[in-house]
Amino acid sequence: KSRGALVRCAPVVRFKMKVFCPECKLRVLPKDVGEIREMRDVCKTMWRKFMHLDDRHCPLFRTCEVKDVKHRSIGDETGDTRDAGPSLWRPMPRLKGRS
Predict the structure, then answer these.
(1) Three-state SS string across the chain, please?
(2) Is 64 exposed, middle or buried (0-12, 13-18, 19+ CB in 10 A)?
(3) What pLDDT, in 10s, does the model give residues 23-81?
């Protein structure tokens, strides 16, 4: 089976503490701490800031850890990402505003 080009997969986040975001109305409860979610589904503002597309601050940004973006081959139905190597959880980067 030949492998094609690599596709970028969405980054995932894991919350470290309970928190509430007044902008998107997301409430992370104690039972949700440690749960892994796709960043883009959690908060659009957080995802846009992480990808350097927008400068708006998200209150949830510093309360979670992010897992590095992995890649997978096009046509790989299993979603296997082992080709990209191991990926570790790390704190969200400290991004400065453009102003």
Answers:
(1) CCCCCEEECCCEEEECCCEECCCCCCEECHHHCCCEEEHHHHCHHHHHHHCCCCCCCCCCHHHEEEECCCEEECCCCCCCCHHHCCCCEEECCCCCCCC
(2) buried
(3) 888 888 888 888 888 888 888 888 888 888 888 888 888 888 888 655 554 554 555 44
